[in-house]
UniProtKB/TrEMBL annotation:
One of its GO terms (cellular component) is plasma membrane. Keywords: Membrane, Transmembrane, Transmembrane helix. Residues 1-30 are annotated as: Disordered. Signal peptide: none annotated. Residues 1-26 have a biased composition (Polar residues). This is Putative allantoin permease. Gene3D superfamilies: Hydantoin permease. Pfam families: Transp_cyt_pur (PF02133). It is a multi-pass membrane protein. GO terms for molecular function: nucleobase transmembrane transporter activity. Its main location: membrane. It comes from Gordonia effusa NBRC 100432. It is found in: Membrane. The chain crosses the membrane at residues 65-96, 131-156, 168-190, 202-221, 241-260, 280-302, 322-353, 365-382, 388-413, 442-462, 468-485.
């Protein structure tokens, strides 16, 4: 039985019923709606398999393949890549369990979880930072998927290539057609809520694993049944181990966004055990499978012609059979949509819902997020190194300190004792009102640690430590928050069941 099920029943608000959309008595309509409300324990649907398929999709994303194959190009051999990914996977397994348990206990999404340490109003800071990074990447990933879609369209209808010669706002007619079709597909899926996203992830996971494994087997056969395990420029000795550890750190940093808002998904998890099992098979085990596929793809291509591919899309384009090429492209599209939905769509939806709870619900916030991802013309952002490096990279660097502050407050200061109903109360006597809804101690911890994280990310003198910037930022955020936190407060543990809603909404 979880801690929340043994919670002290304080002056709880009037229970929320399925037939009523009104805010429960005693709660603020500016802090509560059905999408921000905690989920009832009864009827939760995210089991081990669903958690696993999140990672089955996300780990095998095209961006991750590009990163891991890049390690081969930068001097790591096959077994070194597996060690780097394995170490990163173990770190992530531990971090994601800590983050996931928070969602399972409280049943609340990330913006509401942030109210615990930042206050009912101050929580807008971490929620909007996370949401801004995600909505930009939603548009960029949709654009990258549309590039694959264009390859598939031309393979099926070669005459369509004539639509790829002009430019309208930076994209060809064929590019616009491919982008808008994928954009609409994602908008439709999101419009049906988190339960539909869960079902889509469960559908996509096996397809991705089978496709990538088949592609690796095909390349292995093409290479004559053996691969190149390294390049002539492979690192050795201390340089090799520093590279392995640094790349393991970078692998964790790639997931720095996701470890922050993992509770958006685990708030509907059936148990802690489901989270641990799903994470175990989805992170360390799945990452080793991913690493093996990377080693085979890169090593086989290098043996064939001495070239190092940049992503699986390079191999897909060489598939000689049109039907197989189309099937591979479809699999990559299914994968990219799955990754986009979980990593880049859910976070801004909850951030916007948290910002305008009386105006937006999950569906409306999804529309707003999607429209923003369209009007920013993401292909132009992707082609701008300054935007990627300084805007998205800068926001991403701040996520480490945010994680450290939130985790230190929840696990070390409060020892997981949370008054869930008070997360939705704006009254001055609320546990999370602090000063006008903002916890100044969290802000005091965030400002210097965010500054350090940005310096590590952008100042060339700190290039040698940049691989560990997420860890350093998270560690400093936790240490400084522990130093300034109020340790004289009394923390009570109150379940949110009385104000909870079914997880299927």
């Amino acid at each position: 039985m979880s801690t929340s099920e043994n919670a002290t029943v304080a002056t709880a608000p009037t229970p929320h019923t399925d037939s009523s959309h009104a805010t429960p008595s005693g709660l603020s309509p500016h802090l509560y709606n059905e999408d921000l409300a905690p989920t009832l324990r009864a009827g939760r649907t995210w089991r081990s398999y669903n958690i696993f398929t999140l990672w089955a999709n996300d780990v095998h994303s095209l961006g991750n393949y590009a990163f891991a194959i890049g390690l081969f190009a930068l001097g790591l051999g096959g077994w070194q890549i597996l060690v780097a990914l394995g170490l990163g996977g173990l770190f992530l397994f531990l971090l994601l369990n800590l983050s996931g348990f928070m969602g399972e206990k409280t049943g609340v999404p990330f913006p509401v979880m942030s109210r615990i340490s930042f206050g009912t109003r101050g929580a807008q800071i971490p929620a909007l930072i996370r949401g801004a990074v995600a909505v930009a990447w939603f548009g960029i990933q949709t654009y990258l998927a549309s590039v694959v879609f264009r390859v598939m369209i031309v393979a099926v209808a070669p005459s369509a290539s004539s639509l790829d010669d002009n430019r309208v706002l930076g994209l060809s007619t064929l590019g616009w057609i491919a982008f808008l079709i994928l954009w609409v597909v994602q908008m439709v899926i999101v419009s049906y809520g988190m339960e539909t996203i869960r079902k889509y992830e469960a559908f996509a996971g096996p397809i991705i694993l089978v496709t990538m494994a088949s592609l690796a087997i095909w390349m292995f056969i093409r290479a004559g049944g053996s691969i190149a395990w390294s390049t002539p420029d492979s690192k050795t000795g201390i340089d090799m181990w520093l590279k392995i550890i640094g790349d393991a750190g970078l692998w964790v940093a790639i997931y720095g966004t996701f470890v922050l808002n993992f509770c958006d998904f685990t708030r509907s998890a059936t148990s802690r055990r489901a989270i641990v099992r799903g994470n175990f098979f989805g992170i360390p085990i799945n990452m080793l499978v991913f690493g093996a596929i990377v080693v085979v793809l890169a090593g086989a291509q290098f043996k064939i012609d001495g070239k190092i591919i940049e992503s699986p899309a390079d191999i897909v384009q060489t598939v000689p059979n049109t039907l197989l090429l189309v099937l591979c492209c479809l699999a990559l599209l299914i994968l990219t949509i799955a990754v986009n939905l979980m990593a880049n769509f859910v976070a801004p939806i909850y951030a916007l819902t948290n910002l305008f709870p009386t105006k937006l619900n999950f569906r409306r916030a999804g529309v707003v997020s999607g429209v923003i991802g369209l009007v920013i013309l993401p292909w132009n952002l992707y082609n701008s190194p300054a935007v990627i490096t300084y805007f998205l990279g800068g926001l991403g660097a701040v996520l480490g300190p945010l994680f450290g502050i939130i985790m230190a407050d929840y696990w070390l200061i409060r020892r997981a004792r949370i008054n869930v109903p008070d997360l939705y109360r704006a009254a001055p006597d609320s546990d999370y009102h602090y000063r006008s809804g903002v916890n100044p101690r969290a802000i005091i911890a965030l400002i210097p640690t965010a500054t350090v994280a940005l310096l590590l990310a952008f100042v060339p003198a700190f290039e040698s430590t940049s691989s560990f910037s997420w860890f350093i930022g998270a560690g400093l955020g936790a240490i400084i928050y522990l130093a300034v936190a109020d340790r004289h407060r009394t923390f009570v543990d109150v379940s949110g069941e009385s104000i909870a809603v079914p997880s299927k909404h």
